[in-house]
Amino acid sequence: MFGLDTTLTILLVICLLAACIFEFINGFHDTANAVATVIYTNSLRPWVAVIWSGIWNSIGVFAGGITVAIGITNLLPIEVLIDPNVYHSVALILALLLTAIIWNLGTWYYGIPCSSSHTLVGSILGVGLAYSFIAEKSGSYVNWAKATDIGMSLLLSPLFGFGLAVVMMYILRILVKNRAIFKSPKTTDPPPLWIRTILLLTCTGVSFSHGSNDGQKGVGLVMLILIAVVPGYYAINTLESPQSIRKNLVGIELVTNKVNHNLLSIEDSSDMAKVNKLCANIHLKIDSGVNTLNELNKDEKFAIRKNIIVIGKTIKKLTESKDFPLSTTDKSALKKATADLKGVTEYAPYWVILMISLSLGIGTMFGWKRIVKTIGEKIGKQHLTYAQGASSEMVAMGTISLATWLGLPVSTTQVLSSGVAGSMVASKGIKNLQGKTIANIALAWILTLPVTILLSGGLFLLFRAIM
Fold first, then answer.
1. How many domains does the chain contain in total?
2. Measured between alpha carbons, how far is residue 234 from residues 145, 300, 302 in Å?
3. How far apart are CA 116 and CA 353, in angstroms?
4. Domain containing 224: what range?
5. Which of 46, 161, 192, 455 could form a disulfide linkage to 415, CB 3.0–4.6 angstroms apart?
């Protein structure tokens, strides 16, 4: 397979299987949130709800694009993935995957709604930090700018979900005159059709948005594996044509040549020189009679990948500079050419998306009861009402969809749990929350990063010493 020896082939299969297991666990760990409200309001039978949710999770993976997946792969600088010893790269991948699986399973066992996104980010940061201790060259081996963006999204999204759920409940009380929606189920009979329809739509929306956001994390993991172990095949999208790359490079150069260098700051001038140099380096590799990108060797593909990533970051920085002397039209043209060029590195094969889609969808149908019980019974002191279920899921659906559009991973668990908490507070105040459950969720949220950073870093150093 891919020209690898038997040992590396086995390790590659193990890594891919571990990524599928992570997404399978993500399915029943996180997606339980989507079905909790329809199950606890008797809107759908449990087995119908989980199958329905699993289908829409799978659809969401395909429809969500790969922006979030690219954010995951960019957490680690390219240098971390190009270790001459491929076994070291395997050690890195296995360490972060096993850490994410262990923590997710542990919190699921105790029925604590914990963020798979939080877990995955901590695992990646752990191996990046551990790598910095043993790297031959000093420097940062974590993309802190990207990590900060993701950290802020994980921090703010549950606060946003809590506040918005409170507001949503008050709006419902003003607009909805039929008070049946504010009552909890008294029997096992399904609610009125109009309430059931609302809850079914919100369940579908949360499942779809969860797949479009969390599913991309699994896609990002698989791409990390492929880039690290078989870079000759997956460092860049070899289906792109050299002619397309040349066209985009020329588009960038045509705009940058309009810049009056005398008006640039020292920092912007240095960044401009960097962009021109990197464009020239890519030209050298693809202008020498190359008809397809498959004709390039592994090192050349990695070099193109790194150059394109740096070009994208540098041009983003320049176009956001207030002192950069380009018209709005030229800046738009520069951004478009850069975005088209980044298609060479920002991609995922169809089979990867299909594999993660199936893993997430099938995982949704197993092991959901523990988290559903916590969401439905243990966050608030009262039984979940129809309005609380609908408002918390509408908040989760909207927040996750917005995050996916922005290319940021967020936690379905955190957003929906905070939404349920907000809806409980809106009904009877802060006293309506169960303090023990909230404390457990908060403790898991606080501990996730340090525990996963230490565990993944330790496992990486151990595996690297063995391999």
1. 2
2. 25, 12, 9
3. 18
4. 6-230+348-466
5. 161
Average pLDDT over residues 361-380: 66
Gyration radius from the chain CA atoms: 24
- pLDDT at position 16, please? 94
391, amino acid identity: S
The pLDDT score that the predictor gives to residue 192 is 77
Across the strands, what pairs with 433?
380
For residues 192 and 63, state if they share a domain: yes
Q: Which residues pair with 380 in a beta bridge?
A: 433
**pLDDT, tens digit (0-9, with 9 covering 90-100), for 252-277:** 999 888 888 788 888 888 988 999 99
Residues 285 and 313 in one domain: yes
Q: Which two tokens stand for residue 163?
A: 């506040």
Boundary residue ending a domain (307, 342, 377) = 342
Averaged pLDDT, 220-249: 90
